[in-house]
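go over whats below:
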Amino acid sequence: MKLDDKDTLILSKLKQDASKTIRTIAKELNLRPSTVHQRISKLKEEGVIEKFTIKTNNKAFSENFIVLMLVSSEGAIIPEAAFKDSHIKDVFGVTGEYDLMIKMKFKDVEDFNDFILSFRKKYNLKKTVTMVATVNLKEE
């Protein structure tokens, strides 16, 4: 699906605040509410909009210990089900020495330690590098 200027503007408004009503977006963009509704429906149907969600405060949600982990699978198979754990937020295939980069969130270092020891053993991971975030400058 090719996005036009109206689609891009609607998506921009939704990215800023997905709780905005269709009527509010229409008013801000000087469009008819029915036009905004039809375009959002089409964007959902075409898979441009995958889902609507919220962003929570990490500290309030007890997920203020953020870890990025590089994984070299070295022949080990990590099933997709492994990534459904609530600590795992994002998983990317990457190029170079490692195969995956995983973003995870935990309550504290003990919570992380328990998870990582179990995760490495369960999936027979020989090589990982973990990096702990020390300050959150921007996160979407």
Summary: The radius of gyration is 20 Å.
